[in-house]
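S.,

As promised, the threonylcarbamoyladenylate run. Input:
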Amino acid sequence: MKRLDTLYIDNSLVDNVLTHWRNAQLVAIPTETVYGLAADAENNLAVARIYEAKSRPQFNPLIVHVANVEIAKRYAEWNAQAEALSAAFWPGPMTLVMQRRRDCALSDLVSAGGDTVGIRIPAHPITQQLLKAYGKGIAAPSANRSGRVSPTTAAHVLSEFGDTLPLIIDGGACDIGVESTVIDVSGEGAVILRPGSITREMVTAILPEIHDVGIITDGAAIKSPGQLESHYAPSIPVRLNVTEVATDEALLGFGSSVLPGAKTMLNLSPRSDLVEAAANLFAYLRALDVPSHRAIAVMPIPTHGIGEAINDRLRRAAA
Ligand code: TXA
Ligand code: MG
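Predicted complex:
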């Protein structure tokens, strides 16, 4: 994996992105988790264009990305949990769901009409550079069409949207590869709505009282609609925890001893490294998602640490 610490883009490209945002246009941007489809979060038209481009159900709220905590505090009500978690994990792969401030300038669409907002300070240096230059919130869901896997390279974004996107910023392959951990701190406690690379163990170390509700499968109770079971779906069937594989299936392997017999095989991590597996997950699902395979057969992946997020995404891919 490429280290991105020294990456930056020149001023004319920054200006180009900012002009698009000021004109309510979409720009695809890299983050350390997945690529985002980014537009001005204070502009209703811009936010509506995101929903349109993604063909996303209207009820699904969007994450607002900001450069720093000072800007976040213009939009959201702060509390002790937000203070502790933001100090520990921002900039980084964590989204905090908080109460909107009464004078919040964000489009209501980013909250899908509700009274909370999901905010994140991403760590990717190019996106930090862009957010600092813009100085306000940028709504950016993952840059895929609704129901498809999240893109982890600029080429994935291009294959999702073709020429319909005016600008895609290529910041290399995403370091982490699964979306941010979404934590609801809008109430008294803290609840993980979507697992990610900031694990339950890491959150609990900061907030010893946290309750993790796990995955909400009851449609009526969905708090984080990204948890819809069919959210991450390749176009061919996905079988999980396989112990044998047919010749016309594609195998998604893990670890040093992969099952024999598949027509095609990609190994998420030959050395059983879950972080490496997460970074490869969506790219490999895409690569194996071709009609000549009857199905994608996935070997068991351990459930500790970021393995919890990997298994969560795989369950939805299989739903
Ligand atoms: O890593 C990420 O989070 C990426 C990159 C681009 O930052 N973004 C991303 O956005 O995954 P999206 O829109 O695909 O997923 C946002 C998740 C959804 O599950 C959504 O329902 C939840 O966050 N979410 C956002 N705002 C929320 C809110 N106010 N209340 C509850 N859930 C919220
Ligand atoms: Mg998404």
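DSSP finds nine helices and 13 strands in the chain. The longest strand covers residues 94-99.

- D.
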